[in-house]
Amino acid sequence: MIRLLLYRLYQLLLLLCPFAMGYLLISNSLPLLSDEIWPYLTESQHLSYHSLWKPLIYYEIIGQSFFLIFSAWLGIVHFRNPILFWKITASFHLSYFLFFISDYFLTQAIPALEAAVDVAQITFLVQSALLLGLGYFAKRYAQTN
To answer: What integer pLDDT is reported at residue 120 of this predicted model?
Structure first.
C-alpha cells in the first residue's frame, strides 16, 4: 500500500515538474536579464559587479531551460514507453542534482552571495536528493508489479 502511494506520488510530481521548472525559470532567472538588473551585475562601474555574474546567469538560464524541456519529454516518455522511462529517469534526477550542486558552488564564488545563507537553496538541495530516492523506490515498485 505504501509502495503504491509512493509510486502515485512520484507520478504526480513527474507531471508537475515541467510547470515547477518553468515557474523557476520565469520568476528567478529571466528577471536577471532585465534592463534594471543586468547592467548592475555585469558592468564594471557598478558596485555589485563581479566577473562571474554573466557566465553564472547564462549557465542557470541554459541549464534550467534544458531541464524544463527534459522534464516535459520525460513526462511524455513515461506514458509512451515505460521501459525507456526508467532507464532515463535516474539520469535526469542525477544530472539535475549535479547541476544544482555545481550552481550552488558557483554562486558561492561570488563574494556578495557567499555571505548570504540561502535556506531555500539548501531545502531545494535536500528535496532533489529525496526525489532521487523516491525515483528509486518508484522504479522498484514498477518492476515488481
So the answer is: 62
Q: Of 2-11, 24-33, 40-49, 57-66, where does mean pLDDT reach its minimum? A: 2-11
Are the beta carbons of 105 and 74 closer than 8 angstroms? no
Contact 6, 141 (CB under 8 A): yes
Rounded Cα distance, 142 and 73, in Å: 20
pTM surpassing 0.85?
no
Instruction: Give CA–CA dist 43/4, Å, rounded.
Output: 53
Identity of residue 123 = T
Q: Measured between alpha carbons, how far is 46 from 111 in angstroms, rounded to an integer?
A: 15
pLDDT tens-digit profile of 55-101? 999 999 999 999 899 988 988 887 788 777 777 877 887 888 888 88
Q: Which residues contact 141 (CB under 8 A, 6 or more apart)?
A: 3, 4, 6, 7
Q: Give the 3-state DSSP-derived string for 27-58, with helices as H, strands as E and coil as C.
A: HHHHHHHCCCCHHHHHCCCCCCCCCCHHHHHH
Where residue 50 falls (left for φ over 0; alpha for ψ -120 to 50; beta otherwise) is beta
